[in-house]
Amino acid sequence: MMLSSLIAVLFLGGIAAWTAERWNPSAPRWIAIGTLALEALLAGSQFAGLDASTTLLSTPSLSSAWLAEVDLPWIPRFGIGFHLAADGLSLLLIALTVLLGFMAASSSWTEIDQRTGFFYFNLLTCLAGTVGVFLAVDLFLFFLFWEVMIVPMYFLISIWGHENRIYAAIKFVIFTQVSSLLMLISIIVLALVHYHATGAFTFDYFVLLNARLDPELSIWLMLGFFIAFTVKLPAVPFHTWLPDAHTQAPTGGSVILAGVLLKTGAYGLLRFVIPLFPDAAHRFAPVALALGVVSVLYAALMAFAQSDFKRLVAYTSVSHMGFILLGAFSWNLLAMQGAVVTMLAHGLSAGALFMIAGSLQHRLHSREFGKMGGLWQVIPQLSAFTLFFIMATLGLPGLGNFVGEFLVLIGVFQANTAAAAVAALALILSPVYALIVIQRAYHGPLQTRPLLADCSVRELASLGLLVAALVWLGLHPQAVLDVSKPALQPWVQNLNAKET
Amino acid sequence: MKLGSLIALAPFLAMTVTAVAAMLAIAVKRNLALINGIAGAGIVISLLLLAPARQQAPAQVTPLLRIDDYALFFIALLLCAGLAVLGLCHDYFKERGGENEELPLLLVTALLGGSVLAASSHFAAFFLGLEILSISLFTLIGYPVNQLRPLEAAIKYLILSGVSSAFLLMGIAFLYAQSGELSFNGMNRFILSQPAMNTVVLSGIVLIVAGLGFKLSLVPFHLWTPDVYEGAPAPVTAFIATVSKGAVFALLLRLFAETGSYAYTPLQPVLGFIAVLSILGGNLLALLQKNVKRLLAYSSIAHMGYLLVAFIAGARIAKPLVVESVGFYLVAYFITTIGAFGVVSVLSSADREAGDIAVYRGLFWRRPWLAGTFTLMLLSLAGIPLTAGFIGKFYIFASGADGKLWGLLAAVIVGSGLGLFYYLRIIVTMSTEEDEGKETELRTMPGEQLSALTLAVLSLLLVWFGILPESLIHSIRAVADIFGK
């Protein structure tokens, strides 16, 4: 039941925050922080069980990689169960979710002063949906959480967003919804195939893993999932919703969107596409790798051309997500683990950059580089933080992103030399856009403007925490690799066995 | 007639008695609350009488009506919808001048017509039920006689409904001319005994489908829909959108399942074409609307198209799954549609319907509960999880995928994408700030307890069936079993 409480705490906390607004306008913030703290405790206790993982589960159907499980019947008509399970991969991403939840709450502290209750309700519900996505191992339940996290994000963008928010919010929902309907059809067909073969209806992940599929059908089903996940990831050509959504979202929304929501797409690729359709995915790999390479390069180039701080960071996200696509489809443990590290590192660095963008906008009321310039002289602390996170994004050794990209590139090199070589060009392009940011926003002549306040204690603390996390990830990635390895290894072995 | 048959007919009798009692009461004293009370009590009694009627099921009462679980389920659904609409009507009409007492009476007769449709196993009962329903509806639509739009809508509905009845009669005549049978069972025997395709029968079925297509407002028979929806008083619109369509769909499904019309394969592309046109046409036209009632009208066209996908799948998949899908989808559709029009009805004033989308601006912050209800209903119409609409859409996908109707499913996906766009636009409008100093509040709400109660119950059901659908699925499956395994 621990796992269900991970979801319930966030959801109930959201409702509490909503109702508390009536008593005190600032209460929702504190309730959100309290809820997240409780969530952190709960998630932490799951991590504590990680060492003793081998003996925790007695269910024979599960391999030892799975640490905890909840399985309750829900809609027996279709064999749908309320089935949650956690392995290292889920836990790492939940940890990221909780950490970025704190960051989102922190960066909304002063930015959101209207209807705070409803804001924190949406924020926490969105996180609850995301945690549900990371835990669900019933495909129907997974789909449900997948959809549930979209609606509150829609509200976050459409109510508290910037000037063009309605367009961006509707675009976001339509892209993710339509693609997820393709996934729903794939899920249903998968269950129906299993039903016609065995006479038992089920949507359970572990059962469907063994479903026998016609090779041609499995390609189509795989595509249904793949499109839904790459829209969310996002990869070229499904990425166009992302810059709009990011640019228009409030800071807290951007942090969650970049840090956590995009990771659900990557998680889906690793958790569902590859294990459920190994053969189809393998045949499809060249296309996926090509899409990954194109995403990496195209988005890096596009980032270079932006004049809007948030849009630039949004495009860099697309570029980094391309690495994850490469890692997921290159059929070896190293690359997959690299993808996981990139997911975490990108969550931290992009989250931080969006927070900085939010702080700048709060001070300057603009996101345009043209209106910045020379900021280093007035707000040195914030500028230094920016430099740090920009360096992290471009892959400075010693920080998390470097480890992730490096592992991915090694893995891809073994799978497809050409793809690795071309993707490595991103290592040249990313410094270019990174330096553009520093150059245009922080150096050069100072534009005349009223006095700007430097980092507040709250900003120092939250950004400092992210710095520490990135450095730790960069210097000690083995901890993460150890946790994610048991979760990924079976699929890789499975694939290699099939290949030989 | 045996006692058993009388018990089986008891719900119908109760409705008839209610209509007569209401009429007599109006003759004695005009009092809207009293008549509403009588009508409400009558509907509740009819609902209660469904339980003893179920003891007799399945029973063929006269050659015309078959009282089985399928019929009883849909009658119960129609009656519940009627009760909800009655609640909305009470609040809507009590502040209005004029003699509104006949309105509940008409609602009851319309429900009677709908119930006959759900139970009919004979073309005579089918036609009778349809006419009782339609004639009550013209009057309901045109009830505010001193206003132009309702009258226009009523006339439009009257004429087109007459045309569609003519189509139906022609179709029935074709069938009769060939088979000499008017009961569904006899028709089934005839179709089974035919070695080859009978073109006259096929034309008959196509004519009947066209006639019913008018009632269901499927494209290309949909032209009356937006005008009638816009013109009719909001609670009556809810009634047309649900009771009339639900009853007709229940009949259509029984007609096809029992007469073996699914065997006519040339019908499949025709129906598929109608479904795709309805889904795309309904959604695309809804995109262009600035009036919420017209928008909901077009969206209901699209929803009938979705429903038709499950219906078409009936040719290829097990009948019980089709009945289950259609049943669940209709329940979800009833709840959401009555809820959505209920919100419109609460916001409407005596002189103006709350059609204009500007009325909804800032509703979230003015009347959070009402806006929350509307949001819930719209999300359900869009098929977002945790609402009954999502499970309904799941059923559509499941039966479509089982029947391998990939083209139709693609249309459903495209339609859902378009649908999201206009549903979200309403939600966005409700959450945008109101312009300062501009008063868009249409009326100060004197007392609308009944509407509030209705909306609360509907929202609860919506979420309940969305999160824990098993109980509803279970009862629908019991109904579906009558069509064999």
Largest sheet of chain B, in brief, is: 2 strands, antiparallel
Biggest interface between chains: A-B, 31 and 31 residues
Tally of DSSP β-strands of chain A: 2
Low-confidence stretches of chain B: none
Write out the strand line-up for the largest beta sheet of chain A, numbering strands in chain order.
1-2
As an assembly, this protein is heterodimer
The class by helix and strand makeup of chain A works out as: mainly alpha
Q: Could you tell me how far the N terminus lies from the C terminus of chain B, measured between alpha carbons in angstroms?
A: 32 Å
- Overall pLDDT score of chain A: 88
Uncertain regions of chain A: pLDDT < 50 for 5+ in a row? 53-61
- Whole-number radius of gyration of chain A? 22 Å
| Principal-axes shape call of chain A | globular
- The count of β-strands of chain B is 2
How far is the first residue's CA from the last residue's CA of chain A? Answer: 41 Å
What is the tally of helical segments of chain A?
Answer: 22
